[in-house]
C-alpha cells in the first residue's frame, strides 16, 4: 500500500526570537516492510546548518541550527511510503518456552535489551493488573499481548491531548482514560512487568475512513513495539486495538517517549509562541 503524508507545523511568535537548535524526528523508519519512495522537507527560515544522524537508539534525527532572529518557524514534510501487509504472528517463538510468560530471554539477547526491560513506572498496581490479565490469558505470551490491548481499548476513555508528556502508567490505569501516548506508556509498563522488552513508537496511522466522506483531522500517533524471541520487534496499538501490520508508519522508537518528540527545541526572546499543526494522511 502506498501512503502519502503531508505534515505541517507552524510556530508563530509575537516578537522576533532567536531559535536554539531544533531536533526533528520526521523521517519514516525504513525496514523490510516499509520503503520511502519520496521525501521532501522544507524549513523556513532556512537553517544555517541542518545535520542528519542516528541517535543513541538508531532513529534518524535531524538538528536544525539558526542564526538570524525570526517571528515564525514553518516546517513542512511531504512523504510517500510503501508498506507491505504481513501476518505479525507468522513466526515461531524460540526458545520455545518464550511462548509462555514470563519471558526469559537468552543472556546474549538480554544484555542488548536491558534498556527496554527497565521496571520504572511498574508500580504494585500496574504489576498486579498485568498479572491478572496474564492469568486470564493462560500465561500465553501472544494472548496476553492481544488481551492487554483489548483491556485498554474497551475499558478506557480516549482523549486527544496534543501537548505535554505522557501520564505515568499508574495515573492512566487509575483514571481509565488517556491519549494514545498514555496508552502506549501503560502498555509498555505492563509488558515489562511480564518480562517482555518494549519501547514507545511515534508515527502516523492511516485510519480506515470512507474516501467519499468529508476530510477528517489527523494527528500524530503512538503505539508500542515488543521484542519477541524468534519474532523480533512487533507492533501493538492499544488505541486502535490492532496488531501493527501495514497501516502504521513509524518515525522513531525509544524507551523514553520525550526523546522522540517529532519537533523539539527552545528559543530566546520575549515573544510568546503559538503552535499550529496539520497532518493529512491518505492512500496514494
TrEMBL record:
InterPro entries: Bac_transglu_N, Papain-like_cys_pep_sf, Transglutaminase-like. It comes from the Bacteria. Residues 172-240 form the Transglutaminase-like domain. GO terms for molecular function: peptidase activity. Keywords: Hydrolase, Protease. GO terms for biological process: proteolysis. SMART domains: TGc. SUPFAM superfamilies: Cysteine proteinases (SSF54001). This is Transglutaminase-like enzyme, putative cysteine protease. It comes from Pseudarcicella hirudinis.
Amino acid at each position: 500500500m502506498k501512503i502519502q503524508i503531508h505534515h505541517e507545523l507552524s510556530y508563530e511568535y509575537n516578537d522576533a526570537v532567536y531559535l536554539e537548535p531544533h531536533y526533528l524526528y520526521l523521517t519514516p523508519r525504513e525496514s523490510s516492510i516499509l520503503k520511502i519512495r519520496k521525501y521532501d522537507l522544507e524549513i523556513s527560515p532556512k537553517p544555517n546548518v541542518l545535520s542528519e544522524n542516528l541517535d543513541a537508539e538508531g532513529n534518524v534525527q535531524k538538528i536544525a541550527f539558526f542564526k538570524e532572529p525570526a517571528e515564525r518557524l514553518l516546517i513542512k514534510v511531504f512523504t510517500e511510503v510503501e508498506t507491505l501487509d504481513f501476518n505479525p504472528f507468522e513466526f515461531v517463538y524460540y526458545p520455545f518456552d518464550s511462548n509462555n510468560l514470563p519471558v526469559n530471554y537468552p543472556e546474549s539477547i538480554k544484555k542488548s535489551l536491558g534498556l527496554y526491560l527497565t521496571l520504572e513506572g511498574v508500580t504494585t498496581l500496574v504489576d498486579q493488573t498485568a498479572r491478572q490479565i496474564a492469568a486470564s490469558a493462560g500465561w500465553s505470551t501472544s494472548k496476553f499481548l492481544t488481551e492487554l490491548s483489548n483491556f485498554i481499548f474497551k475499558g478506557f476513555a480516549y482523549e486527544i491531548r496534543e501537548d505535554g508528556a505522557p501520564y505515568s502508567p499508574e495515573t492512566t490505569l487509575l483514571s481509565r482514560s488517556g491519549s494514545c501516548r498514555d496508552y502506549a506508556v501503560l502498555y509498555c509498563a505492563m509488558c515489562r512487568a511480564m518480562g517482555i522488552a518494549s519501547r514507545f513508537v511515534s508515527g502516523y496511522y492511516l485510519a480506515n475512513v470512507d474516501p467519499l466522506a468529508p476530510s477528517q483531522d489527523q494527528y500524530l500517533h503512538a503505539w508500542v513495539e515488543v521484542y519477541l524471541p524468534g519474532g523480533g520487534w512487533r507492533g501493538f496499538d492499544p488505541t486502535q486495538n490492532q496488531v501493527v501490520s501495514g497501516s502504521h508508519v513509524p518515525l522513531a522508537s525509544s524507551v523514553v517517549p520525550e526523546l522522540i518528540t517529532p519537533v523539539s527545541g527552545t528559543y530566546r526572546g520575549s515573544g510568546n509562541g503559538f503552535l499550529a499543526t496539520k497532518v493529512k494522511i491518505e492512500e496514494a
